[in-house]
Amino acid sequence: LALSISAGAIAKPLVIAHRGASGYLPEHTLEAKTLAYAMKPDFIEQDVVMTKDDQLVVLHDHYLDRVTDVAERFPDRARKDGRYYAIDFTLAEIKSLKVTEGFNVNDKGDKVAGFPQRFPMWKSQFTVPTFAEEIELIQGLNKTLGYDIGIYPEIKAPWFHRHEGKDISKAVLKVLKQYGYTTKNDKVYLQCFDANELKRINDILMPEMAMDLKLIQLMAYTDWNETMVYNGDKATPYSYDWMFKPDGMAKVAQYAEGIGPWKPMLVDDKSTKTNIIIKPLMAQAKAAGLKVHPYTFRADEGRIPSYAENFDGMLDVFYNQVKVDGVFTDFP
Ligand code: G3P
Ligand code: CA
Fold first, then answer.
1. Which sequence ranges form a coiled-coil region, renumbered to this chain (predicted)?
2. CB of 238 sitting under 6 A from ligand 1
């Protein structure tokens, strides 16, 4: 009986704290990461972008204006599109900015809190952490508390950094190596939306640096502009269509350990509570031997699919029916 139970047991999916405990505190602050740590997820996520002086900081966007006071502090430093790009600022300048909850700017130019019920806007001294500082926080807590919580960095917009003359992937690998993350046995997944960049990391950069990390291919739809291709100065969206073809997952498996799809790529919206329609991508990924870590599991109203009714129902569908290997969640 014991044997049959263990043979049939389904491993609990990995919990990946998405931008930290970002359902409670401003995303990617060390405070949100510390709270995430206390919730004992398997991994804590870092989105990583580069500064003018080649430092790596943990920030979701490659611009600073959604979560900081950069527009007030450096009003003349926006580009033509009105954005304040991290790559135009030194680490010292970025460190001098205040971080708050993500906000939107309305027609009148007022800043409107994205999460009005959460941490009061601007009433804090939150700052943008470096990638190294965040690793030191997590490794320090691991040593002190005896847990083994991993990191899950995402290389953000390598196409943009390359166009600006920066090799963000090499810089990320260098920091990972410096902190002891070098093999597939180390508790790290390295993720990116850019398939060509992941292939380059797998085929060229990691062999050159004597590294062999687990890679995750994030998946977007072509019209999201998650990945761009430059022709001179003109950038056009990279097409993700090949990943959804029957042989797409086998191609991904040549360089990656798993995929990070948007969760509606796995379950059809036409699903009902009694009839969950699982999309072909799941079986294709499993047939190719890939792990599947969908994003993003949130409790916010309006983001729960009707077939799932609530957050627990959504987890139940993805854990027990789709049988994913892990979930990115704002609520670790
Ligand atoms: O990395 C998984 C998920 O975080 C991708 O979405 O936009 O939150 O980085 P995003
Ligand atoms: Ca991410």
1. none
2. no
Identify which of 19, 18, 36, 23 has the alpha carbon closest to the alpha carbon of residue 117: 23
Taking CA atoms only, the protein residue closest to ligand 1 atom 6 is 295
Q: Helical H runs in 58-205?
A: 70-73, 91-95, 131-145, 158-163, 168-178, 195-200
Q: Which token pair is 103?
A: 């906000």
**DSSP tag of 295:** B
Would you say the C-alpha torsion 67, 224, 282, 184 has a positive or negative sign? negative
**Type of residue found at 103:** F
Residue 121 lies in a domain: no
45 alpha carbon – ligand 2 mean position (Å): 7
Taking only Cα atoms into account, the Rg of the chain, rounded to an integer number of angstroms, comes to: 20
Is 18 one of the annotated active-site residues of the chain? yes
Number of folded domains that form the chain: 1
Which structural domain range is residue 220 located in?
A: 15-97+126-329
Q: Does the model's pTM come out above 0.90? A: yes
ipTM value, please give it.
0.98
Asked whether residue 41 is domain-assigned, the answer is yes
Question: How far apart (Å, rounded) are the C-alpha atoms in residues 58 and 144?
Answer: 23
Q: Tell me the per-residue pLDDT of 123-161, one tens digit each, with 9 for 90 and over.
A: 999 999 999 999 999 999 999 999 999 999 999 999 999
The rounded percent of the chain whose pLDDT value lies above 90 is 89
Alpha-carbon span 171 to 246, nearest angstrom: 34
